[in-house]
Amino acid sequence: MIQFSRFVLPNGLRVLVHEDNSTPMAVVNVLYDVGARDEDPSRTGFAHLFEHLMFGGSINIAEYDDELQKAGGENNAYTTNDLTNYYCQLPSANIETAFWLESDRMLSLAFSKKSLEVQRKVVSEEFKEHYINKPYGDVWFRMREMAYEEHPYKWMTIGKELKHIEQATLEDVKQFFFRHYTPSNAILVVAGNVVTAEVLALAEKWFGDIEPGEKYIRQVPQEQEQSAPRRMDITADVPVDAFLKTWHMPSRLDERYYAVDLITDILGSGASSRLYQSLVKEQHLFTNIDCYHFGSTDPGLLCIDGKLVKGVTPEQAEAAVEELLEKLKRDGVTTTELEKVKNKTESTMAFEDMSVMNRAASIAYYELLGDADLMNTELDKYNAVTAGEVLEECRRIFDENNSHTLYYRAK
Amino acid sequence: MINRKKAPAYKDAVEFDLKLKPYEKYVLRNGVEVYAINAGAEELIQVEWVFRAGNWYEKQNLVAPATNFLLKNGTSNRTAFEVNEHFDYYGAALSRACYNETSTINLHSLTKHLSKLLPVVRELITDAVIPESELHLYKQNNRQRLEVNLKKNDFVANRLIDEYLFGFDHPYGRYSRAEDIDALDRNTLISFYDEYYRNGRCVMFVAGKLPSNLNEMLEEHFGDLPLHGNETMPVIHHVMPATEKKYRVTNDPNGVQGAIRIGRHFPNRHHPDFFGVQVLNTVFGGFFGARLMNNIREDKGYTYGIYSYLQNHIQQSAWMVSTEAGRDVSEATISEVYSEMDILRNELIDEEELMLVRNYLMGSILGDLDGPFHIIGRWKNIILNDLDENFFYNSINTIKTISAAEMQALANKYLNPADFYELVVV
């Protein structure tokens, strides 16, 4: 059970405080309700580029990092298709430094030309490092484009193409900032060795006078139900064939989510999972195979992803995967299997909650989903999933008409 | 109105009095030492068995990592699947890893399940059978994985720079090749297992919210095993560095980035310069606010990231600069790295920057002492390197007190471009 207090400042900023006196540190986590799904299709990669620019100086403070480091702090940030999260950790005695820094960049950035020029290059190198200079680096660009026709999940957080990043202008940056980086689109979580009343006073002092801005109303085109299978067969300069298949799955907020999450564990998490045991260990078709999903806020994708043993064709690999899924849809899962993945969920959650930083991020994330208290009922929701519900979800999701198959063949 | 131009008052982290929570130590009746940190609010535990069974001890390339990997792939009572199923059922994670000197089995679990898990770990240490079929799969999968990795410039660069520094015949310089994977055979693995695990030298590290009967449990399951440290003759390996220092290697003709590694030898943690160099390294390239990052990423935009670090070896280390930079700016990146070395040799670090680095390091250590798993990690490092708590306190003291002049002297001793091996893999 994770305790916290929740306040809303008059400008709309949500403030959540979690006290934990066993640590000498404090964590300040600011989540902005903006991700790659909020981008214009002709300017993709912008939310992530923007995350970089948030470190390029704010209206009153030239160097975010230097100031934080002087106070003994460390920080980082990440952007997903759904959200952008900034977090820093510092000795709790110095917590006001984090308030000063975070509130100033919520107030306004410096909009430095040099910062934009440099970060465009940095992000281009990031793009190259992770997606161009790596074998199979483009797999997810292709899969997303195949799986989504309407929804902006069809592009990666890094952006659809390098060109979009290279063309970003200072005017785009300003617009983006004032549309999304407002108190009403943000959630501030302070956790660690802190006193709630003091945090609230600091929040009012530093964030209270920031203009509320306009509440951003998200209008994301939703995906139509898919009625036929989609397939792609490509050949690239890679040493071995790869196989990736995905199916649409319910959103993070859907009650069905918990059963589906457990399905991915049963199929593909750990060395005793079904896919690994059958296709790697017994049938020798794959050298590795995983099943996972991204937990996206809008309906996402359930994925089965593996590399083939040389000599095995993607057709054979797919047939074996399908056979395994057919059996699952016919016979369902055993009680022991279901207990196993529930135990694993309990354990994973407990380990994640060990770190104050993770707890702060979770509180912010669940608050974004609608209510931070949801995090305290998650385990019950997993434990309530029945074998019957798992079977029903398997039958619903593993439907060929709901699928996208990618053969990635070695030249 | 608040003055947003002015930073709020803060406490210099150097004023913090950092303490490393002492461990409790038990010695099992067979002589195995157990180091324990009992802390934390959650009912979680980590148990780690560290064996002197790293590749330092193998006589044939890859025998140590293959044995380590296959430890959990079957005993005389359980198939690989049954072993995995057992740990997975209790939501536990059993991982293993092989390093240069040591190799480990590491168990993470909810404390309540520990008694169900320890007997099976005992089986892995006493009764692994390494089935032929499992070895066959291991070889096949690793050959393919190697083939994929060899397409990655960073992977190739990491291998080559180690080879240049230490020589292929040294455990720090050796890497996997397809022919080494092919040559692995079950008998060699079994005899390595017998010597370095079943009758090996083991030390244990436990952390978390520890059950009151932990000592008895460990005694029961591990106290009777011959793990007291089969004190075999120490194995000596000689470093054989390459004579040539500069390399340009083409790996991917269409590559868009070069993997750059610039490295020199450096003594181990027992050397008196180690503490000062840790601070100097932080200024140079050890964190996001370091000079290399400020210059090459934040000013020039040549790379997504650039870092320098000391390699984590026990016997002998290396000081390394590592980055992936745009293909057409790789050479410019290298000259910037050398020019940062020049500046450190020729100019004193100003007080403001030095204070920032002191505070950053202190804050970072403070944050890293948070929780039992981090604390035991620090102790493990100290114990396996044959050091004591003075290592921690000397390190803190150096961070607080080292002068700019001392750091310049260290830069003059260690940051001479002529001493560095240099490699770009495109």
UniProtKB/TrEMBL annotation, chain A:
Record keywords: Hydrolase, Metalloprotease, Protease, Zinc
Keyword Hydrolase: yes
InterPro entries per UniProt: Metalloenz_LuxS/M16, Pept_M16_N, Peptidase_M16, Peptidase_M16_C
GO molecular function: metal ion binding; metallopeptidase activity
Domain Peptidase M16 C-terminal: 168-344
GO biological process, one term: proteolysis
Boundaries of every Peptidase M16 N-terminal domain copy: 14-130
Key word Nucleotide-binding present: no
Domain of life: Bacteria
Recorded family membership: Belongs to the peptidase M16 family.
PANTHER family: NARDILYSIN (PTHR43690), PROTEIN YHJJ (PTHR43690:SF17)
Protein name per its UniProtKB record: Peptidase M16
Species annotation: Flavihumibacter solisilvae
From TrEMBL, chain B:
InterPro entries linked to this entry: Metalloenz_LuxS/M16, MPP/UQCRC_Complex, Peptidase_M16_C
Superkingdom of the source species: Bacteria
Lineage: Bacteria, Pseudomonadati, Bacteroidota, Chitinophagia, Chitinophagales
GO function term, MF aspect, one: metal ion binding
Domain Peptidase M16 C-terminal: 184-359
Pfam families, A to Z: Peptidase_M16_C (PF05193)
Xref: Gene3D superfamilies: Metalloenzyme, LuxS/M16 peptidase-like
Name of the protein: Peptidase M16
SUPFAM superfamilies associated with the record: LuxS/MPP-like metallohydrolase (SSF63411)
Coiled coil region boundaries: none
